[in-house]
Model the fold of this input.
Amino acid sequence: MYDFRPADDCPKPEAYRQLRDAADALTSGEPDPVANMANIAALLWDFLPDLNWAGFYRVIEDELVLGPFMGRPACIRIPMGTGVCGAAAETGETQLVEDVHSFPGHIACDAVTNSELVVPVHRDGRVIAVIDLDSPTTARFDGEDRAGIEELASVLADRI
Ligand code: SME
Done:
């Protein structure tokens, strides 16, 4: 049994250190990208409060294709540059969106989503996937979440 959850009063940077260590332990030595993405989606879901979706989109032949996730069924293919995920994949930059309803082209896979954090995973100078976190709470994500998930993305770069 794995139980990686941080204590309720754990400061966010420490919780993200624990998340990174747990992700490292779960994926170390495992070459299968689907197994690793599935476990990381479950880890994010378990670890982070107030989410309604957590998972991966992979860059395949110039579009984003749904990967392992937790939450409701979601859009399967997203054109590069479209929506929050497409913007992160196209620019290679994290997208921290406090209110998705004011983001041009936002794709509403689930009507309950109000804020979103999308972090690209880079390998060999290109974006290979994005980590997408959605929350029903407006402005759920801040700079500490961004830093923590960017660190996670770098741990995963050669494991997914
Ligand atoms: N809202 C995203 C689409 C993916 S779902 O949230 C799972 C977007 O605008 O890219």
About this structure: The chain has a mean pLDDT of 95. The CA atoms of residues 55 and 69 lie 4 Å apart. The chain is about 35% helix and 25% strand. Helices lie at 12-27, 33-47, 83-91, 143-156.
